[in-house]
Amino acid sequence: MTTTLDPQKIENTLRQRLESRMAAVRDLVATRQAVAEAKEALKRAEDEDVRRWNAALTAGWTEDELRTAGLPEPEKKARVRKRTPRRTPPPATAVPAPSDNAEQPGHGSVEAQ
Questions:
Q1: Region Disordered: which residues (predicted)?
Q2: d(CA 56, CA 58)
C-alpha cells in the first residue's frame, strides 16, 4: 500500500493554519493599538481635568465649595515640584588679609636698638 503525498494539498493546509494564526496576531495588534490610544486619551482628559480644577480655584471657588457641589478633586492632581535647597559649601575659615596699615616685621617699623 503506497501513500502518495500531495505537496500542494499539504502547503494549502499549512497556509490556512498560518493565515488563521496571523489573523489572531493582527487582531491582537489592533487591540493593543486601541488600548494605547485610549490610555493617551485618558491622560489628556486627566490633564485637562486638573487644568479646569485649577481654573475654578483661580476663579475664586474653594476646594470645599467644589466638593460640596459634587466635584471632588481630580484623581491626578498636577504634581508640583518642590525645589530642593541649594547645597552651599561650608564657609571657609576666614584668614584675615594683611591690611595696608599693619606693621610688618622689618618693614617700616622702628625697633629699639
A1: 65-113
A2: 5
Grid-cell match 499539504, residue found = 10
Beta-strand ranges (E) seen in 1-113 are none
User: Using alpha carbons only, what angle is made at residue 84 by residues 79 and 89, rounded to the nearest 5 degrees?
Assistant: 170
Are 36 and 44 contacting, i.e. CB atoms less than 8 angstroms apart? no
CB 17 within 8 A of CB 24: no
- First CA to last CA across the chain, in angstroms? 139
Query: pLDDT tens for residues 75-106?
Result: 877 565 566 777 776 666 666 666 655 555 55
Q: At 110, list the grid cell.
A: 622702628
